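ok so i was messing around last nite and threw this chain in just to see what happens. nothing serious, just curious
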Amino acid sequence: MRRHRVMLDGRELYAGAQWTHVQRFAEALRARGQDAVAIRDETPRPPRAPRPRMAGLPPLGTALARQGK
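result:
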């Protein structure tokens, strides 16, 4: 899970997974005259495991899958 942060004077005030929420929180603090900084979490995302498809369906990319049969 992502952990974006809002920092103020070297302290972490807020941490969240949604980048837009962190940006809004920092903007609200700046509107109040505080020098808040939004820091984006740059750690690479872990690779996603492929999900199994429903039984009975043809594999994606085959002629049968394209025909809808």
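not much to say yet. The CA atoms of residues 58 and 65 lie 6 Å apart.
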